[in-house]
Every structure is written in structure tokens, then in C-alpha cells.
């Protein structure tokens, strides 16, 4: 299967898991994932788009480096990088967005501090690492299966 298709499938899988997480957080806590009433309806989706971009570009880079070096993609490094980049992207996009909405720069720090340990942001970052690791393992298995010599069953 094409590496580009793996990247797109991983990004969409990540989106599905994030939507699941947001729904569960809302159902269990009976609060929105972004609790500020003046945040608007685009701040949360903007943060999710940032996390999707982190998954997309991390996985695309891992496949690109593996193709350049003619080897199987490594797993722990890109998975950890996707989790870290997702976490940072969500906090930066959320902080910038809310500071622009409030028109006060102090919200850059306050928003990031408030959501640094929120269930939504942390779980989304964990999902990003898991999705990238899972799709890298899938790509390794697929490439090993393609390079295996054919078996002959002569019974």
C-alpha cells in the first residue's frame, strides 16, 4: 500500500479518536472541552486541525526519511515526536486563538497554563503518538510481507 495513503489514513484515524475523546469528555464531565464561554466555536476545531497537521507531517517525514535511507521506518522517535508536536500545537493554537478573541496578550500564558494538563489536550497528544506508532508498525509489516520469498505448498 502507498505510504501516502498510510499518512492520510493515520490522520483520519487520529481525527476519529479525537472526536471520540471529545465526546467522552463531554459525556463524563458534562462540560465542553473548551470551557471558556467566549471562546467561540472555532477554537477547539482549530486545535484539532493543529494536532492533525502534527500527525500528518510527522508520519510523512518518517516515511520520507525511511525511503531516502532505504530502510524500514523507525517507530519510537516519530511516535514521540508526534505526541510532543501535537501537545505543543494544541496549546499554541489555543493560546493564540483565545488571546486574539479576548484581545489581551496575557491569555497566551493563562490559556496554555489552564489547558496544559487538561484531559482533552493530553489524551489527544497520546492518541497522536499511538496512531503514528501503529501505522509505522503496519508499514513495517506490509514491507516485510512484500519482500518475503513466495512459499510453495506441494502436498
UniProtKB/TrEMBL annotation:
The chain crosses the membrane at residues 7-28, 48-67, 79-101, 113-138. Keywords: Membrane, Transmembrane, Transmembrane helix. Coiled coil: none annotated. The keyword Membrane applies. This is Transmembrane protein.
Amino acid at each position: 500500500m502507498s505510504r501516502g495513503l498510510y499518512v492520510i489514513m493515520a490522520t483520519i484515524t487520529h481525527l476519529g479518536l479525537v472526536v471520540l475523546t471529545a465526546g467522552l469528555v463531554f459525556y463524563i464531565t458534562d462540560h465542553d472541552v473548551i470551557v471558556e464561554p467566549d471562546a467561540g466555536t472555532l477554537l477547539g476545531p482549530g486545535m484539532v486541525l493543529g494536532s492533525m497537521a502534527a500527525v500528518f507531517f510527522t508520519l510523512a517525514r518518517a516515511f520520507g526519511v525511511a525511503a531516502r535511507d532505504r530502510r524500514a521506518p523507525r517507530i519510537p522517535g516519530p511516535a514521540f515526536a508526534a505526541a510532543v508536536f501535537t501537545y505543543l500545537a494544541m496549546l499554541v493554537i489555543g493560546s493564540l486563538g483565545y488571546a486574539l478573541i479576548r484581545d489581551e496578550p496575557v491569555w497566551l500564558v493563562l490559556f496554555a497554563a489552564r489547558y496544559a494538563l487538561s484531559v482533552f489536550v493530553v489524551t489527544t497528544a497520546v492518541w497522536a503518538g499511538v496512531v503514528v506508532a501503529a501505522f509505522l508498525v503496519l508499514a513495517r509489516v506490509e514491507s516485510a510481507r512484500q519482500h518475503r520469498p513466495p512459499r510453495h505448498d506441494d502436498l
